[in-house]
Amino acid sequence: MIKKYTFGNPLKTGAVVLEISPSEGSPAGFEINAKEKELKTGLSKDAYVYGLGETIRGINKRGWIYRSNNADEPHHEEGKNSLYASHNFFILDDGKNCRGYFVDHPGFVEFDIGYSDKDLFTIRFEDFDADFYEIEGNEPKEIVRAFRELIGKSYMPPIWAFGYGQSRWGYKTADDIREVNNRYKELGIPLDMIYMDIDYMQDFKDFTVNPKRFPDFENFVKEMKDDGIRLIPIIDAGVKIEKGYDIYEEGVAQNYFCKKEDGTNLVAAVWPGKVHFPDFLNTKAREWFGDKYKTLTDVGIEGFWNDMNEPAIFYTEDHLKEVFEGIHEMENKELDIWGFFQFRGLIEGIANNPEDYRRFFHDFDGVKVRHDKVHNLYGFYMTRAAGEAFPRIAPDKKILMFSRASYIGMHRYGGVWTGDNMSWWSHLLLNIKQMPSLNMAGFIYSGADTGGFGCDCTEDLMMRWIEFSMFTPLFRNHAALGTREQELYQFKDSESFRNLVELRYALIPYIYREFTKAVENNSMYFRPLFFDYRNDDRCREIEDQLLVGDSIMIAPVYEQNKTGRYVYLPEDMKMLRMRSYNDYDEEVVTAGDHYIKAELNEVLVFIRPGQKLPLTKPARHVDDLNLDELTFIS
Ligand code: GLC
Fold first, then answer.
1. In the structure, which protein residues have their CB atom closer than 6 angstroms to any atom of ligand 1?
2. In the chain, count of helices (H) and strands (E)?
3. Tell me: the pLDDT tens digits for 103-130?
4. How far is the CA of 162 from the centre of ligand 1 (A)?
């Protein structure tokens, strides 16, 4: 049962697909204060809060303040309030009664969940215009299902996208990419995708390929595909300002870029230097930009990742001018402490400055809207542009698509990766905790940069991370420019890495089946234990073990120098300690707490009673797997 309450005059965000007529009165539990632009409810001692999709901290969101304000934020730390996404869906659950809520509002929203007052949950708005949905159900899984019916079916990628992908910001030439493929091949480690980061482009211009670095790109795409590798290029939100560059020229001529108050196109800067931002909220501009992916699909490309679409802004021309003026004013003065703070603030406030998001406007199909009012839709609509275009431009192919920024609704067009994490053990744990919340919001095709993006990855961290990521639908090793190289062939124990990636491939029949079920049935592929074991209070506080599909539970090791961990079993299960698809120990473990050994190269998989785990024989590529010849462990 879903009720909708409308406050003010909300814009249609495109998040929901079901029409629900507005109810009168107040939503259950929440007190509305229109003057203060806030909603409030009490948090009882037993209340847990699940949801909010891609955020920092735990599966239970209680005890922090989260802000929906899509941010180019590479510091995924406890003290932050926003990451790249705004997923305003949550469930309040006291173990007996639960209720779901979705705040459909495209601008800034704050979820103060027992932060200002430990017993209060306050939702604050900048603009009190929202559709507020209340979803009843007997248990979280039922609420999630109803919510997902409301927002429409999740994106279904091609099956090869469940293979392993290698990425690094720094591959510059066709030979760099050939080398990655060759080294994986030499070691016999399965690989399906190599990602192309910004350096494949000519001067970072979208939909161009640098002809010196990639002579005869079409043939190169074919050469790699013939060897079982799909190339996945990045597409950035900003379009380089350059005379003669067709996308720039067309965008200007047809008014497809975001404009300032005075009607001129906003000039911002990202990788290419100065750029304009396509107005993805405008249907015509969206169609135009979507059709541009054809440049690459026509030469055989079958997948993309959309980036910098919060949008990230290094600076705007206008703000930079103000910064320089400020600095000149200070130039020959002695800076006292306050002067120094002011100076530092000027410099540190250059990128992603809140003021810059108020400098430009969208033509939201006839309605002029200032960007900050609809900020959280930008990445969604960029990905929508691509998702809507694919059936037009590549009707015979299923195209892989995932994005960095997102809002609920984008889950129909693509998946997400969780952005610029670090090679930290704490970020492996964060990855584990983020997955169920992302699934609640409809983002099933998701995963993190395995091994961590920023900082230097160690061999043991990579191995433990692979042991978790082998269960995430999106399974990609990616790292930042300047960090230690972390392709699996860079490390010593390549045999264990091969065994582990092969195990992922052996599990693909299971992963794909359970993923498809989650999409078709509007259910969750990753679930916290308490979503299934409602009568077991111990499960409420377990956030480092997950249910994956209907048949298994996993308990990843996420601490350095550990050769085991405590695991809680809500019931007796068959435990597999797996080193590879055909080398594992089996043991029945009884319900309760156990310390379980898991050496660095061992993955713990627990089969739930009455369930079977299918495995196939691994292959170098998903296309070569035999999905019908399965062995079952039960
Ligand atoms: C952003 C992306 C990252 C990418 C980099 C260069 O930081 O999040 O994945 O490697 O840009 O394109």
1. 169, 197-198, 234, 307, 404, 419-420, 478
2. 13, 38
3. 999 999 999 999 999 999 999 999 999 9
4. 21
